[in-house]
Write a structure and sequence with these properties.
328 residues, mainly beta, nine-stranded antiparallel sheet, 6% helix
Length: 328
């Protein structure tokens, strides 16, 4: 949802035999097309102008190291025309940012909004709430995701956003990497950033998609857009420990250091985040490991950042690793 909105906000803006074995092993022959399970949060209103997105952020680790992968799938309608788009990044702890196919718009020939339209680069099987599989054949990539439980949700009139997280396995090239996915569903009628220009969307957006240890996760965001605040809030988040969703009260996201950018601004490179959970006070410290710039202009930019850090909570310390999305 967010990853490519910057293009409109400013008006500019990866053994062949083994591979086929993996595809047919992971994909059920009669699986459903990807869609959110039907609920009031997932209903698509009858609007001639609408935007829908499914965002998947994966973090995992195997014997070769840690991998972070994000795939944002966007589609929309504007009158009789339908649109679709992917955005994706992948970072390997040892080799850095990988070059992947599919960062582009593509034809939404089936006029799909409820489901994610398939493309020449990715095919989708199943549904977030019941489990799904994403195959990117040209990237030698398969993402298998367990059923995703609802962690947090918001609605504003007919617009809706819901988020969840679940165990997942990323098969990339010859690697099988267990980890977790944080998922975000976003739907907004009377809006379509794929065809219209909006000048007041993203303002100091920072989105954190993080894995705690190997079995838990935390999501947070901070943003200053008055337009999006009724749906997203200025700050929101959730944590997951032992498969249970924990509340986060009195959240504070503080940028403690910034780095140079090619413009009249500076990128955040270190953070201290605090909140109160069921086990008391929590303190999360993060620092940038690597950043890849997506777009840059004189007064702002868009980057994806890999971070690591430490969470102190409930009398224990946990390692944290993941992705941060920055739209400045």
């Amino acid at each position: 949802m967010k990853l490519l909105m910057v293009s409109v906000r400013k008006g500019w803006v990866y053994g062949i035999a083994l591979w086929f074995v993996l595809i047919f092993s992971f994909l059920p022959a009669q699986a459903d097309r990807a869609s959110a399970a039907k609920s009031s949060l997932d209903d698509i209103p009858a609007s001639s102008l609408i935007y829908v997105s499914d965002y998947f952020s994966f973090v995992g680790q195997d014997s070769q190291g840690k991998v972070a992968f994000a795939l944002d799938n966007n589609r929309g309608r504007d009158g009789d025309a339908y649109q679709a788009q992917h955005f994706l990044v992948l970072h390997d702890e040892k080799t850095g940012w990988a070059r992947l196919d599919g960062n582009s718009r593509y034809k939404n020939t089936g006029k799909e909004l409820t489901t994610i339209p398939g493309s020449p680069y990715f095919q989708f099987q199943g549904a977030p709430k019941t489990g799904m599989t994403i195959v990117g054949e040209s990237n030698r990539l398969i993402l298998n995701i367990d059923p995703i439980p609802l962690r947090t949700s918001r609605q504003n009139h007919s617009a809706a956003i819901w988020m969840g997280s679940a165990p997942a396995v990323l098969t990339w090239r010859d690697r099988v990497i267990p980890g977790r996915v944080i998922y975000e569903y976003f739907m907004m009628p009377d809006f379509n950033r794929l065809t219209r220009t909006y000048w007041d969307l993203w303002n100091e957006y920072q989105g954190f998609y993080l894995q705690i240890g190997t079995d838990d996760d935390v999501y947070l965001h901070r943003q200053q857009s008055e337009r999006l605040a009724p749906l997203m809030g200025f700050m929101d988040g959730f944590t997951v420990f032992n498969s249970a969703t924990d509340s986060m009260k009195d959240m504070k996201i503080e940028v403690v250091d910034r780095g140079l950018a090619r413009g009249l601004y500076r990128w955040p490179i270190a953070w201290r985040i605090t909140w109160t959970g069921p086990q008391g006070s929590a303190a999360l410290t993060l620092k940038q490991v690597s950043r890849t710039g997506i777009w840059n202009w004189a007064i702002g930019g868009f980057s994806m950042v890999v971070v690591d850090g430490e969470l102190e909570y409930g009398g224990r310390k946990f390692p944290v690793y993941g992705l941060v999305e920055l739209i400045m």
